[in-house]
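Hey everyone, long-time lurker, first post.

I ran two proteins through the pipeline my lab uses and got sequence/structure pairs for each. Pasting them in order. The first:
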Amino acid sequence: MARLLREGTGADTGPAADGVPDDRRAACTAAAGYPATGAPSGPAARAASAGRPATGAAASDPSARSTANAAHSTPTALTPDVVIVGAGPAGLTAAARLAVRLDGGVLVLDREPEPGGVPRHCRNRGFGLRDLRRPLTGQGYAHALAQRAAAAGAVVLTDATVTGWSDARTLDVTTPEGRLRVSADAVVLATGARERPRHARLIPGDRPASGIYTTGQLLTGLADFTGHRAVILGTEPLSWSTVTTLRRVGCRTALLTTERPTPGSYAQRLRHGATVATRTRISRIDGRNGSLAAVEIEHLVTGQRRTIPCDTLVLTGDWTPDHELARAAHLDLDPVTRAPLVDPTLRTSRPSVYAAGALIHPGGTAANAAATGRRVADQVLAQWGGR
């Protein structure tokens, strides 16, 4: 269900077990326009707030049915000062910086069930050194950023999907409890980026039902992963992080392949002892009995081909911005990356809409995304903080 996250726990809003005073929490939630904890909680009220018809005794009350039906047909209006779409490093960092300075509230919306973005799926260390000044796993880093945002007074609403725009500063949002209409002085898009899947990369060959992943698919499905021998497409920092992730679940990386002329980080190659095939591409995927059996790689200069047996292929890199909301708003997009075009203040072609994080720098690190979150917060404060 859609949840308001509180400081320190990532749990539903409730008694102030996290040390945040009740009056402060109520003020923060009210400022964001979301019903405060302690609101009426009878069957009719819960059904009305969720946009569902009441049942049981409450269903026989005409006024209760009327309230529930009205809630179902009319979105709940929220009016924070700033709404941020995306609870990754950029969005959470911006929220923490803004919330301590704005009395009118900061609301963060994310379609995932937990905040943190991609880092929350990463078990390896190396996160947090630049912005939090301590080494953390990706999961620890995501949790720390969510804690900081909640402690500052920002409201983080998960399981909340933004479906479109009502006007230049108003978003339509769908949650399991019902629809929302969020109007704010400033909108920050921090929706991130995603890797192109196999079909978008036009890799020829068989189409096995299992064994081919993007990094995101691998990380989110790691609990059910059963591979033993992998080929990784790419030699970016994320590619090397994937080597570590696979090793921890008992899968050996047989080869990393890249079209680049150099194999990337010497330190990473030394650390992992992995083989890198430069100036190569995957020329064919071979499947057997519905599973991945091997990949064929081709040298771009000589044309020589060889087959690498494997049961796992991880496609890393080749990022594309998650720009659906930017397109729906008819924002100007970069003709090459398709990311929203921004000026030096990170404003888009619509003055009330800003963009930050991997949405404008696809493939960047979490630290870089967090840095743009701090920057966009400062710019929003400079433009809107006094209003």
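...and the second, right after it:
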Amino acid sequence: MTRSDQGAAVVLGAAVSASAAVGLVIAAWSVVGPDHLLFPALVSCLWFGAAAFVGPGLATVLPQRWSIVSCAEVRWHRRLGVGRFDRVLEVVGWNRVVRAMRGGPDRPGRSGLRDLQRHVQAAMAGHGAGAAVHVVVALACLLVGATVSSGLTAAAGAVLHGWPVLLQRSTLARIQRISPARPAGDRASP
């Protein structure tokens, strides 16, 4: 299998995963109903799991410029508490799980930066898709008058996908800062 065939297979896998997850959200809407308190939990569980399958394929088709993090954005990450969110994930052990999923050491050398960047971009893309789905579902719930489900879906999307996207972008900024492949003027500063 050539490299382009592998890339096409990853994108196809992401499309199938995303379609299945959207289909399950629609099924949950039909079976449980948007006004049931179980509905936001189903949406959140489905898309938290789907993010891992959707992300790698989606990351291959997103423009590379979406992975460039400006210094101003890094300052916003600090204001929004992304560092605190990362520390919470470290305390509860989630970061250890993520490192194991990536198959890499806790602190990769320069040779592992490209691999780490690829994993971070995939996580960012997957969580971005999950955040977008949560926004769409929250708006749909709002339109049909299921305000509690709308609020819960939006809140879950912010915690499960919004902050993780910011955390991945913060990690990309650190990679940019130490990566020898980027010109000095393009690196984000702390």
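Reply from user beta_strand_b:
Welcome! Quick read of the second one: Residues 108 and 116 are 8 Å apart (CA to CA). Helices lie at 3-31, 38-61, 71-79, 82-92, 94-102, 113-143, 147-178.
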